Amino acid sequence: MTETSLQTLHETPLQDRHVALGARLIDFAGWQMPVQYAGILEEHRAVRERAGLFDLSHMGELFVEGPEAGSALAYAVVTNPPSLAEGRAQYSMIVAPNGGILDDLIVYHLAADRFLVVANASNAQVVSDLLAERLSGFKAVLDDRSLATALVAIQGPRSVEILRPLTDVDLDALRYYAIAEGSVAGIPALVARTGYTGEDGFEVFVDTGRAVALWDALMAGGEGHGLAPIGLGARDTLRLEAGMPLYGNELDPTTNPFEAGLGRVVKLDKPDDFVGRAALEKVAREGVDRKLVGIVLRGRGIARHGYPIHAGEPVSGVVTSGTQSPTLGQAIAMGYVATPDAEPGTMIDVEIRGQRVPAEVVALPFYRRAR
User: How are beta strands 114-119 and 101-111 bridged, if at all?
Assistant: First the structure.
């Protein structure tokens, strides 16, 4: 990386904290982000067994407000945000007219005429521009507060006991995929029970200028509970074990929600039209030629992004993500295969450096936390 490109990278408000903790920093979607601190394996286990703290301030926070905010979003995305009760959230997607996925999102219903859309860092500007375009004609306005908002996530089985003494939000009443306004360590915050790890946990939104105080308070509060800072490396292995897609790997503009196993997210019974509706109705009616599946290798090796998948002689598909699962102790992957090869229990081969390695199609997720 050149000195010039380093200068153009965005830094989160927690940059100095990451440097002080000895993080290895990388360029991720135009942001300088910690990929690891103590090490990916150690950080992964910290989240599964105790708790981890993530800086997600590179994500996009897009507020949509106005008397027709719900209707505007129902036109813009594949879900039906007006059906959400206030204080609840839904996983959603924004698609092109041909049904291709442009980003996956979380939509929060904050108040009667106010929603928050959280977009991936790599697509935040694209989603902001699309929403501005699609809100045209509705009595709704877009307030892109991505650079003014910091996002910190605390995830893992001890996250509740760490956060509880620091917040006035009733965590017992805060259900999964719910959000509440309150404070954390005296800092005004939105607290959501959402995450990307497969564990219980929370995502806390604050003004950028309060991010350091929030991080410090959570780190201090977690000191006796084994709380550890977590980088993007472990975030990826955690989400993969949980069978959660990553935009740019499992999801992209050439993929529709039904291929990705996310057809349930598309609300074709919405009363009004939405962008991509006709294309997605056609897919729902006719079916898909390929499907996203879970894969466990039955031979030696690790499947990586881009490796071919064979079912007999022909190439059936391609690996989208793969790793050695720290929790399960075996090589796991996700990938697209031809629909006839997508049934769990189907034996396939993953081509690793020119050698075919036996593997098995399995149901997702690979890991599900004990309730």
Answer: antiparallel
